[in-house]
């Protein structure tokens, strides 16, 4: 795709995030179509990428917003998402963030501890409001993904553990400014083994029985996000298998009459539509390989440094014979490396390098470390 736009790319300063909006639209249509089959509601997790053109597409395609900070709630609302389509999770919501979300009367707070419930009740009471909440439950399901993006194990800080639920119910009876409308789960990210989601369904069904036994009706079940993408073959698999994903939940979730099911997808919707384009600054001889030194670094895309994650790297301007390179950035950290022993056509100063599948948790995590300039974006 990018090779057709070389002339245009050459006119832009690098590093540059390039977004393929056509692929984004195809992805959103596919996700929506599969979710609609079962009347599932899908919220887009803004933390994956909150650029305005991306948010516009999400809203236009009928996605709700899943937020994990007050500013994400604000970004959703200022970009036209209806408050009744906004959910707000996070283990550390500040008073200001809660107050703002209360004022906006968002659909649901996904609450992660008893202490948070007490504070939310107090803040809602001061405003004479009732907050709708879902309990984020930690189901102790292994997401079989990188440990930094595993969130559903008891050792993780997220959610309320099963053994705390009795006391949470007692507490809720004493909190008149909170109304329990559902349960929420989110067990991790970049989950490619669908049996993990099947295990999640089994746990959700067990919790549903528990609530039923306690005579509590839940209107909403939110199973979070986490569906992974193919970082190794972005061209062959640009759109995740939403059909398999949603049909699995349809098959294995045991729902009560009238219950609504919610999802919160981030990565699966936006990862493949974004590419980080960078220029080669220098080639340097190493002991075992050569280094290709780029003008992009971990300040623009931190995933390899933070999670040892793989991104497919391509030289889009050279057609020569393959040579092996360590592809690195300019930042003063040894972890500032996009790939080791990568086979690329012989690479020279000025060549353009595409780092694929960078649309999620890429630009949004960019930092100013080393006083770097803010990375720019181009929409094709
Ligand atoms: C990050 C996050 C998501 C989205 O995760 P993806 O792996 O990008 O789909 C959904 N829900 C919550 C609560 C999150 O924190």
TrEMBL record:
Residues 25-271 form the Orn/DAP/Arg decarboxylase 2 N-terminal domain. Keywords: Amino-acid biosynthesis, Decarboxylase, Lyase, Lysine biosynthesis, Pyridoxal phosphate. Its EC number is 4.1.1.20. It catalyses: meso-2,6-diaminopimelate + H(+) = L-lysine + CO2. The modification N6-(pyridoxal phosphate)lysine is found at residue 47. Substrate binds at residues 267, 303, 307, 333, 361. GO terms for molecular function: diaminopimelate decarboxylase activity. InterPro entries: Ala_racemase/Decarboxylase_C, DAP_deCOOHase_LysA, De-COase2_C, De-COase2_N, De-COase2_pyr-phos_BS, Orn/DAP/Arg_de-COase, PLP-binding_barrel. Belongs to the Orn/Lys/Arg decarboxylase class-II family. LysA subfamily. PANTHER family: DIAMINOPIMELATE DECARBOXYLASE (PTHR43727), GROUP IV DECARBOXYLASE (PTHR43727:SF2). This is Diaminopimelate decarboxylase. It comes from Pontibacter locisalis. The lineage of its organism: Bacteria, Pseudomonadati, Bacteroidota, Cytophagia, Cytophagales. The gene is lysA.
């Amino acid at each position: 795709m990018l090779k057709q736009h070389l002339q245009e790319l050459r006119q832009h300063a690098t590093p540059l995030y390039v977004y393929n909006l056509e692929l984004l639209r195809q992805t959103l249509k596919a996700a929506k179509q599969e979710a609609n089959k079962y009347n599932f509601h899908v919220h887009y997790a803004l933390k994956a990428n909150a650029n305005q053109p991306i948010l516009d597409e999400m809203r236009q395609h009928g996605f709700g917003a899943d937020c994990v900070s007050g500013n994400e709630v604000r970004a959703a609302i200022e970009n036209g998402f209806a408050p009744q389509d906004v959910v707000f999770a996070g283990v550390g919501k500040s008073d200001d963030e809660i107050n703002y979300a209360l004022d906006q009367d968002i659909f649901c707070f996904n609450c992660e501890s008893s202490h948070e419930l007490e504070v939310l009740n107090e803040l809602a009471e001061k405003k004479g409001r009732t907050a709708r909440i879902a309990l984020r439950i930690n189901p102790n399901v292994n997401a079989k993904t990188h440990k930094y993006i595993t969130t559903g194990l008891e050792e993780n800080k997220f959610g309320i553990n099963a053994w705390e639920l009795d006391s949470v119910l007692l507490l809720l009876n004493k909190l008149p400014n909170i109304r329990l409308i559902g349960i929420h789960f989110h067990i991790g990210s970049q989950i490619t083994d669908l049996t993990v989601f099947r295990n999640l369904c089994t746990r959700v069904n067990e919790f549903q029985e528990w609530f039923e036994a306690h005579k509590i009706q839940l209107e909403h079940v939110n199973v979070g996000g986490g569906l992974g993408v193919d970082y190794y073959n972005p061209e062959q698999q640009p759109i995740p298998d939403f059909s398999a994903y949603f049909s699995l939940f349809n098959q294995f979730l045991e729902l009560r009459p009238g219950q609504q099911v919610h999802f919160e997808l981030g990565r699966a919707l936006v990862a493949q539509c974004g590419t980080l384009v960078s220029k080669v600054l220098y080639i340097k001889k190493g002991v075992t390989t050569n280094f290709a030194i780029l003008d992009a670094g971990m300040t623009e895309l931190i995933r390899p440094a933070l999670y040892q994650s793989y991104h497919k790297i391509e030289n889009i301007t050279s057609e020569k014979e393959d040579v092996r390179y360590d592809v690195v950035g300019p930042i003063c950290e040894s972890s500032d490396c996009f790939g080791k022993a990568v086979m690329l056509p012989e690479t020279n100063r000025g060549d353009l390098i595409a780092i694929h599948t960078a649309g999620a948790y890429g630009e949004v995590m960019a930092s100013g470390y080393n006083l770097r300039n803010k990375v720019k974006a181009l929409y094709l």
